[in-house]
């Protein structure tokens, strides 16, 4: 029922386009559904990767930061730039991206979900079918495949929840991608970070096993006389039941005379230090995700260095990987040719670089005296209403500045008299 109306109005078709085939270097989505087996003998999948605390935190930070940034539509008219107003009646694009992308999601949840698909599957697919009511839907990357027809037109083969396969033309789909090797289809971060995550999962499992043994060492037991497989298993289970688990920590193991030799196999200090290397793997995860280390509770924690790291994080991770391509794709896919002449989309990046009250006041003072913003515009940024004296919508300039051109006479200065120099 979710896509019934949309499918009725779209140009999607049930039959594959003539000569349809996957592009070269398309990749294999099924790998991530079933997981990738690593050298550490751990299966890394979108689900198991979330079990690594630093990766879970990092992906949520990335998706939350993008989702928290308002995506707004602007129009440039006669040298003036104005935000396009959201219209709930026509459900124009400004309304879809800023108020309600579809009947179920808020803009925050919508953008966060798209970024999660990007990180874990390498592609974020937003479908905007024609017709009314206008809505934006997220196509699951796990059941979507790109295809080219015999005329080199791009289509998306999608398996819908009702079990039907449809072929949607690329003109209806805004496609975001990361780690692409062909410009048509992206690749998941997991494809490159699998071994790093596998080591981390293996370390977690090792810690769990040690804890499950009540922090007691493994042991070698020699019995009097031969034992068959059932006998060996019974002996092993008896020992493990006696000392395993938190309640078994420090308990005394009691043996009868059938045990002729017992030798504990203790963990070496070098092995314990290896378990501490989990923190080093967190640094690798931060690099894979493009995050400053302090966001994963590692690295420097001073305010000034973290503030500088946030600026670098915006310039080197958020902008090139997520924001710019979304703005460019929205300009092409969500606007008609006539709208593209003077209308564009932009993420409000200031929401990520939210500074202290003191820093904001200093910036506002600079904006005011350099005529970059009016007082009311600055008040609006801090959720204050317009000033009541009526002067908040005017630009102000510090009067102590002078024009560098000696031939120019300011309107506020008298003209030189009797040939005197200014």
List the helices and strands and how they pair.
Layout: H1 4-9, H2 30-34, E1 36-37, E2 43-44, H3 46-49, H4 53-68, E3 71-77, E4 80-83, H5 93-98, H6 107-121, E5 123-127, E6 137-139, E7 144-148, E8 154-159, E9 165-169, E10 173-177, H7 190-212, E11 218-223, H8 229-243, E12 259-265, H9 269-276, H10 278-289, H11 303-333, E13 343-347, H12 357-369, H13 375-381
Antiparallel strand pairs: 1-2, 3-4, 3-13, 5-6, 5-10, 7-8, 8-9, 11-12
* Distance between the first and last residues' Cα: 78 Å
Beta strand %: 5-15%
Low-confidence stretches: none
Q: Let me know the average pLDDT.
A: 80
Largest sheet: 3 strands, antiparallel
Shape label: flat
* Secondary structural class: alpha+beta
**Beta-strand segment tally:** 13
Strand order of the largest sheet: 4-3-13
**Radius of gyration, CA atoms, in whole angstroms:** 31 Å
Q: Determine the fraction of residues in helical runs and give it as a percent range.
A: 25-40%
Determine the number of helices (DSSP H or I, runs of at least 4 residues). 13
Note the run of SSEs as H and E.
Answer: HHEEHHEEHHEEEEEEHEHEHHHEHH
């Amino acid at each position: 029922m979710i896509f019934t109306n949309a499918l009725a109005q779209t140009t999607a078709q049930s039959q594959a386009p003539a000569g349809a085939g996957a592009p070269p270097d398309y990749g294999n989505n099924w790998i991530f559904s079933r997981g990738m087996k690593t050298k550490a003998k751990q299966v890394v999948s979108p689900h198991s990767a979330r079990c690594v605390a630093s990766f879970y935190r990092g992906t949520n930070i990335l998706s939350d930061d993008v989702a928290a940034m308002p995506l707004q539509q602007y129009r440039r008219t006669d040298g003036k730039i104005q935000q396009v107003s959201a219209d709930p009646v026509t459900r124009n694009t400004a309304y879809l991206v800023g108020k309600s992308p579809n009947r179920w999601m808020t803009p925050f949840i919508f953008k966060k979900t798209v970024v999660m698909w990007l990180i874990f599957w390498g592609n974020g697919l937003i479908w905007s079918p024609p017709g009314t009511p206008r809505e934006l839907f997220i196509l699951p990357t796990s059941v979507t495949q790109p295809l080219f027809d015999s005329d080199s037109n791009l289509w998306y083969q999608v398996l819908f929840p009702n079990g039907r396969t449809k072929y949607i033309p690329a003109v209806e789909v805004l496609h975001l991608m990361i780690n692409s090797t062909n410009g048509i289809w992206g690749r998941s971060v997991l494809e490159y970070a699998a071994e790093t995550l596998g080591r981390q999962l293996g370390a977690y499992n090792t810690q769990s096993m040690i804890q499950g043994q009540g922090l007691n060492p493994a042991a070698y037991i020699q019995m009097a006389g031969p034992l068959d497989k059932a006998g060996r298993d019974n002996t092993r289970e008896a020992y493990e039941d006696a000392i395993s688990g938190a309640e078994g920590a420090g308990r005394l193991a009691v043996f009868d005379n059938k045990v002729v030799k017992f030798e504990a196999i203790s963990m070496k200090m070098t092995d314990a230090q290896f378990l501490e290397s989990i923190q080093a793997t967190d640094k690798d995860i931060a690099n894979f995700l493009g995050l400053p280390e302090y966001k994963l509770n590692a690295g420097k924690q001073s305010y000034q260095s973290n503030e500088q790291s946030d600026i670098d994080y915006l310039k080197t991770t958020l902008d090139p990987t997520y924001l710019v391509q979304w703005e460019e794709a929205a300009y092409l896919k969500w606007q008609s040719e006539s709208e593209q002449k003077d209308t564009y989309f932009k993420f409000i990046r200031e929401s990520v670089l939210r500074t202290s009250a003191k820093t904001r006041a200093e910036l506002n003072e600079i904006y005011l005296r350099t005529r970059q913003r009016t007082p009311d515009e600055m008040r609006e940024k801090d959720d204050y209403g317009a000033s009541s004296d009526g002067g908040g919508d005017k630009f102000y300039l510090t009067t102590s500045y002078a024009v560098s051109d000696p031939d120019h006479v300011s309107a506020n200065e008298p003209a030189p008299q009797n040939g005197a120099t200014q």
